Amino acid sequence: MPVAATALILQPSNRWGVPIAPCTHLEEKPNDSLRFALGEIPRGVLTEIAGPASSGRTSHLYTLLAAATAEQEYCALIDAENAFDPLTATRAGVVLSQVLWVRSSSNIEHALKAADWLSQAGGFGLVAIDFGDSPMEAVRRVPLAAWFRLRHNIENKPVALVSIAQQIHAHTCSALKIQLQRKETNWQNNLLNELKTSAGQVMNHRRKEKAVSIPVSRFYRTSRSNVFVMPEKQSPCTQPSTLPATSHCL
Q: What are the residue ranges of helices labelled H in 71-195?
């Protein structure tokens, strides 16, 4: 992983040899925020989005990627547990040609190192780390010094660094904390149609609540007996024919 990630930074291109152009326009507005369904994600700081299963954290991750790619920004997604589904992301509006997908194969340390390198490399408007399916004990063992390093390295840089997990782990190292909680589910014709959640946001010691509705039918369908089960995980990197030509895999 470290060798591959280093090669990626030195020679930015995808697995098919197509070069990835840097997003130079970000340098012109380093203090701008990234806006999506939950509000604004500030740049130059660490943001945490946490919530249990079925709280909408994956859907919010996809809408965040969609919002960034809609603004012609390049994004990096560090997928700790190989949980990213390109088809679902496409349905959510994510432009896969502008997303660098890094899989760390359950290695928390490699995921943090990749996030550190990519957030400092430049050219990315959003760097997201998905620890949503990682064991909480493993993420909890990440030393606070590692989170401090991430926070320090992105200060005053035009990149939004976001960590997705089941719980808040960075504590004082994150400037914005968003805690998700499922409130209500809406079923239609025995299919899950809408998920209503609450998002508690804490920034500068001020807390505010926001109610959010997620149109689940936009992403995937599941029967009532399955109770909001995500699509089965696949290994698209081992099956190139099933992976859209616009995705990047590492």
A: 86-91, 108-121, 136-140, 144-153
